[in-house]
Amino acid sequence: MNYSNLIISIPVILYALTIHEYFHGWAANKLGDPTARLQGRLTLNPLAHIDIIGAICFVIAHFGWGKPVPINPHNFSNPRRDNMIVSFAGPASNFVSAFVFGIIFQLLRNASFMPMNVSAFLYNLLILGIIMNLSLAFFNMIPLFPLDGSHIMESLLPYPLALKYKQMERYSPFILLGLILMGNYANVSIISMIIGPPVQYFLRVFTGLQF
Length: 211
Prior knowledge:
By secondary structure, this protein is mainly α. It has helices spanning 3-30, 35-38, 52-61, 79-109, 116-140, 148-156, 159-167, 172-185, 190-207.
C-alpha cells in the first residue's frame, strides 16, 4: 500500500472498527445488558475501540478487528438468542455502511460540479470504505473464536453440540493466527479465499463497477 492509500485508509479503518464495536454495545444495551455503556464503550470515539494489532492487520491484509465490547449474557432475557443478535450487529453495521457508501459513490460518480482532484479523492475514499467494511463484516462471520461468527454458530447449534463447539474455543485463536500468518508468509491466504469472493461480489453490486 502506497502512502496516499495509507493516509486514506486510516479514517476508513477507524470508522469501520468503531461502528462495528459501537453496534455490538448498542444492541447489547437494547437487549438489557448495560455493561458496555457503563464501561464507556457505547461511544463513537475510535480511541475506545481500537485494538492496535487488529488495526495493523487491517492496514496490511484488509481484515482485522477492534477491541471486543464487554458483554454479560446473564443480563439477557434469552441469552442464546440475544447473544447471537449482539454478535450479528457488528458485521451487519459494516455491511450497511458499505451499502450506504455505495449509494453515495453512485450518486457522485457522474457529478460534474466537483473538481477532478476532489472527485478522485472521494471515489478512492468511498471504494476503500466499501472494501474495508465488507472485509470486516465477512471476516468476522468466520466461525472461529473470538470472531462474531463463532458466537453466532454457538447460538444456532443444538445445545449439546454448542457445548462441544465451545470446547474448541481454546484452539480457535491459534488456528486463526495460523491462517493469517500462512497468508502473509506462504502466499496461501485461506482467509482471502473465503472472504474475497463475497467482498468482490458486493463491491461490484454497490458501486456498479467491474473490478
